Amino acid sequence: MSSETAQSNVQAPSQQQNQQSLLHCPISDAHINSKEVERIRQECRNESFWYRGLPLSLGSMLITQGLIYNGFLSSSPRFGSLPKIAVAGAFGFAIGTMSYIRICQKKFQRVGVQPLRPESERHCHHICKECEAKLGSNGKENVKSSAS
Q: pLDDT digit string (tens) for 30-40?
């Protein structure tokens, strides 16, 4: 009885190890350099701030101040025009930063990374020979059916 439970305990970790090896893709991860990804991430942060976020923020603040000055918007009696200008600046910055997402996606795709896809869509299409030998023909069919 105890030998049966010991064998089942040994089989369970090996099945978990096979599942983990299927989830990890050594072929697609081999060409991705983490320093390159970090460089692109930092570049996207800087460019989205300087090229989109800051200009739209300042522009929306100037337009809001112009609307308040011309009487289209009224200023607050207690705080003046500051709250409306601050909100306009925050919205301008947020919209400007978000508008740069597509450009950053293209930069990551050139390197081979799909950073903004849902986790459920990230899977490996490669099967190494070692995994294929471990799984046999049944495992290969299961992987193909789960990938579609």
A: 556 778 888 99
Residue 67 token pair: 């609307």
Q: Is the dihedral of CA 77, 83, 85, 91 positive or negative?
A: negative
Q: What helix, strand, coil percent values describe the chain, rounded to 5?
A: 75, 0, 20
CA distance 135 to 40: 38
Supply the DSSP symbol for 71.
Answer: T
* Cβ pair 115, 108 in contact under 8 A: yes
The single-letter DSSP state of residue 51 is I
CA distance 93 to 59: 10
Joined tokens for residue 80: 């003046």
Q: What ranges do the domains of the chain cover?
A: 35-112
One-letter amino acid for residue 109 of the chain: Q
pTM of the complete model: 0.57
Q: How many residues does the chain have?
A: 148
The answer for residues whose C-beta is within 8 angstroms of residue 90's C-beta and 6 or more apart is: 57
